[in-house]
Amino acid sequence: MRGRAAIVSLMVLLGLAGCSGPTACAARPITAGGVRVSAEFISDSGVRVTLAPLRAGFHLYSLTMPDGGVDGLGVPTRVRAGAGLRSVGPARSDVASIRLRMPELHVTLPVYPDGPVHVRLRVASDGDASPTVIVSYGACSERLCLRPVRDLSVPVASAGS
Fold it and tell me: Is the sign of the CA dihedral 29, 31, 34, 38 positive or negative?
């Protein structure tokens, strides 16, 4: 019995039981609102959040969209520090937004091109909690919008995990 407990403890320590700690177990991508979201440290002071629509032809609204949308339309992409972190700079995307003209609604919306977007956030450690980022977004095609996601807590994985 004692030998078995030692083996299980060693497996957990080495990450062979499927996790290498509570953050690593929870740091798998999360799917919500038709988008797979993951976050990982890319340096001592940076987190990269990947937002990838699951369906072809879907885009995300831009970080530059106003908080209430444009004429009440759209859910802006937002990434901010959550537990264990604090922001030390604004969130920035790896791709420039484009202007999507919707003549039937008489509005032009700032969106990212269809497909995944990476958002980088400079952060500093702010305690012993397992690090998370808080993410909000909306995914749409030219004909359909999926349920928006607001204030989703996403665990941050260690670099290379």
Answer: negative
Q: Is residue 75 part of a domain?
A: yes
**Measured CA angle at 78 (ends 154, 64), to 5 deg:** 155
Q: What are phi and psi of 13, to 5 degrees?
A: -60, -40
| 35 domain-assigned | yes
Report the distance separating Cα 152 and Cα 137, nearest Å: 9
d(CA 41, CA 99): 30
Single pTM value for the model: 0.81
Q: Is residue 48 classed exposed, middle or buried when 0-12, 13-18 and 19+ CB atoms within 10 A define those classes? A: buried
Nearest CA-CA partner of 133 in 118, 123, 144, 143: 123
| Predicted confidence (pLDDT) per residue in 124-151, tens digit | 998 888 999 999 999 999 889 999 999 9
